[in-house]
Specification:
single chain; alpha/beta; eight-stranded parallel sheet; 8 strands; about 15% strand; globular
Length: about 250
């Protein structure tokens, strides 16, 4: 059985006391929950303080990006060494917003993923098609390409990652991915992973759903056979809604 993993991607939200209060509230809400891994991914500025609040709890710390170099002239980036120094365990790589707004490519996703694994971090590698790609009937080719490119040349380390499927077309467009559509994409990813790492390893890799999971739809989504958790955006900014999604995975 794969342990469910629910990660909160705060994006460019929350600072100072409010950020720490949110983590404290999440800790209270999910105290005693041991069947779901819980991860919060605050902005870089809050990571060090967040690590202290997460310490000793069942809430783990993640970051929203990482560079492939240990150091250097890469303005605005952050290295694995920097993330390790503040106690980060997980790191989101290749989020659709990084691809859309900041030039992320399949190649750079692969480089970041390799660096994270080499440093002992657990990458949450994001894949998913846009509205235009979906309407053009390219969902399968896009998702398969992103998975294969993101995991290229990882070898046995590929089994250590988490995949997050983000149907970009279902985020902020007024269109909703049904649990059946989500499961179809997750099953495709699982089959692709089987080709890359073999069936046994592929069956151990967790695949999160990142398409506007909310308390109202979490239980049905998380009951699908290949959906192993969620990468949560807006709903992770309130402790009650985030905890409701986590508890739906128990």
């Amino acid at each position: 059985m794969r342990t469910k993993i629910i990660a909160g991607n705060w994006k460019m939200n929350m600072t100072g006391a409010a950020a720490l209060e949110l983590i404290e509230a999440v800790k209270r809400e999910v105290a005693g929950v041991d069947k779901v891994e819980v991860v919060v991914c605050p902005p870089f500025t809050e990571l060090k303080a967040a690590a202290a609040v997460c310490a000793g709890s069942n809430v783990m710390l993640g970051a929203q990006n990482v560079h492939w170099a240990d150091a250097g002239a890469f303005t605005g980036e952050i290295s694995t060494i920097m993330l390790q120094s503040v106690g980060v365990k997980y790191v989101i790589i290749g989020h659709s917003e990084r691809r859309q707004y900041f030039g992320e490519t399949d190649e750079t996703v692969n480089k970041r993923t390799k660096a994270a694994l080499a440093a002992g971090l657990i990458p949450i590698v994001c894949v998913g098609e846009t509205l235009e790609e979906r309407d053009a009937g390219r969902m399968e080719s896009v998702v398969v390409r992103q998975v294969k490119s993101g995991l290229d040349d990882l070898g046995a380390d590929a089994s250590k990652i988490v995949i997050a499927y983000e149907p970009v077309w279902a985020i902020g467009t007024g269109r909703t991915a049904t649990p059946a559509q989500a499961q179809e994409a997750h099953a495709l990813i699982r089959r692709t992973l089987c080709e890359i790492v073999g069936g046994d390893a592929a069956n151990g890799i967790r695949i999160q759903y990142g398409g506007s999971m909310k308390p109202e739809n979490a239980k049905e989504l998380l009951s699908q056979p290949d959906i192993d958790g969620g990468l949560i955006g807006g709903a992770s900014l309130k402790a009650e809604s985030f905890a409701a999604i986590i508890k739906a995975g128990v």
